[in-house]
Task: structure prediction
Amino acid sequence: MKQAEFQKGEIVIYKSKEGPKLDVRLEEETIWLTQAQIALLFGTQRPAITKHLKNIFTTGELNEKVVSSILEQTTSHGAIKGKTQTKKVKFYNLDAIISVGYRVNSKRATQFRIWATKTLKDHLVKGYTINEERLLQARNQLQELQGAISFLQEKSKHKLLVGQEQEILNLLANYSKTLTLLEQYDKEKLSLVKKTKGKFVLKYENSIKVIQEIKKELIAKREASDLFGQENGEKFQGILGNIYQTFGKNELYLSLEEKAAHLLYFIIKDHPFVDGNKRIASFLFIYFLDKNDFLYRKTGEKKINDNALTALALLIAVSNPKEKDKLIKIITNLLVI
Result:
């Protein structure tokens, strides 16, 4: 059976190895075939189908009024090329088709009976085949969410995160809101990360100016030394280049959320500065979001407050490089809650 392909109210539903291939009507959560199509399906003649249907209705196995319907069918006009005509034709639903299939004595009917018994009812009537891909996606996304929550719980025990337990709990609480994934799935709105397009581009020269302004303020407060913000080779330029890198003329990180998350992660993990990497990463993260009008919720509160950002910075610092994808997913999800 092929996946449902909706075209003008019809789908391709069944094709055996030897044929036939049928275009089938899908109406009222079931499928409909004419007697001619049923005969083709089972490799027999139409009179045999008429006889079997008559016996099915006579014995009361099925109610003809329930399993049959007069539907319009568009066909080519025999006399005029390119012109079509519409006529009323009697169609029979899935229950009738299966009942006939169990009465016809042919190789095709046997193949159909095996297939129908195993898959047809469950897959089409219950909608499993149509929704299989979305169900799999929902399950995979849920597993990723559970993995991220386990990650936060594990890292909260690290000695560098002592005193940050409440912020870790807050991160868990906020992140758990994305479990509305299941509700979104029910409403056919399955989405974990919005692909927001940012207008502001974070450039190297501008970033250095911002870092220098931060350095002045921190030195004045005696919260930083002259080593703060001193570049470690060309690592910082490389990080900005990575955020905006392209592959096949397409940006590798398409969304604003992804760029912001990678900016925070790379500065903390790659140590592009002699001193102050976590603070610089956090400042530039906030600056980048603010310049793109993405720092605040509609309520006026920050999407990631200062305490939560401190906890995130520490989480990144103590994380294993293999855990990068989990951290990026956590950050991007927190930005869209």
